[in-house]
């Protein structure tokens, strides 16, 4: 297995959930990390916690992945400071709403497409050239079971994660002549702030999603991502669909309510 000690890991959307759990496991294993998100206070708190706990560097960058200029400036700063990620976890993303298309909010659709597709691509464009120059490392694109299985009310979120799946394949082709590995992990239900965001802060609705079965935790996914990125360099996992044992498709749950 590859050691991440002293290596640089970039995690977008590290203020919560899967990104936060990834920050923990890489820091714990001695990597220096760059953590991003829009919530400055959380980034500062996580930086403080992880630097003190693991004696590593955790550099926070607060910006919105939808802001193309901000992402470009971030990429330029990485370049100027010779900060090339060895592992890049393109994770920032969200779902908004669960209405049928005829009842959907266009603002929600834009939020999802701008974040999960356009922001995802802005980040890839900012970081990939640096990694290609070094010709090493792994990109983990955070997909979803929603990227291969459409479910009622999932529509635009489904489409955005189908895009991640397609872009993961495209990136693999684009990286053919390099040593850079491109992988997507496609989780089912993971209990994070995801549903709280999807249901606009409605805690009851969000809690309800995870009732009656054991969902995945953010650290379950971080452990798997860690495994994927530390495999010997000749192994490239293209995609990995992971669900709770109590979930067997996007809509089939064995709930004990
Ligand atoms: P959380 O809501 O807990 O975390 C989402 C993270 O993304 C936060 O750190 C948030 O930071 C960041 N983020 C969202 N929008 C932006 C933005 N415009 N600019 C910068 N950062 C942003 O959810 P999860 O951890 O569950 O989600 C992480 C990824 O996993 C997403 O791509 C999601 O689609 C995917 N996923 C989640 C599953 C689940 O069941 N939870 C299952 C399958 C995939 P901040 O608010 O500070 O900007
Ligand atoms: C999050 C999982 O099934 O709610 O991507 O879309 S799901």
**Content-based structural category:** alpha/beta
Bin the helical content.
40-55%
Major beta-sheet overview: 7 strands, parallel
Instruction: Name the poorly predicted regions.
Output: none
Put simply, the count of helices is: 8
Percent of sequence in beta strands: 15-25%
Distance separating the two termini: 42 Å
Task: Give a count of the beta strands, DSSP E runs of length 2 or more.
Answer: 9
Element string (H = helix, E = strand): EHEHEHEHEHEEHHEHE
Rg, alpha carbons: 18 Å
Q: Biggest sheet, strands in spatial order?
A: 3-2-1-4-5-6-9
Mean pLDDT: 98
What small molecules accompany the polymer chains? Answer: NADPH dihydro-nicotinamide-adenine-dinucleotide phosphate, 2-hydroxyethylsulfonic acid
Coarse shape: globular
Q: How would you describe this structure to a colleague?
A:
It is built from eight helices and nine strands. The protein has 257 residues and is an alpha/beta fold. Helix 1 (17-28) links the parallel strand 1 and strand 2 (32-37). Helix 1 (17-28) crosses helix 8 (218-230), helix 3 packs parallel to helix 4 (106-134) and helix 4 packs parallel to helix 5 (155-174). The longest helix is centred in the middle third of the chain and has 29 residues, at 106-134. The mean pLDDT is 98. The protein binds NADPH dihydro-nicotinamide-adenine-dinucleotide phosphate and 2-hydroxyethylsulfonic acid.
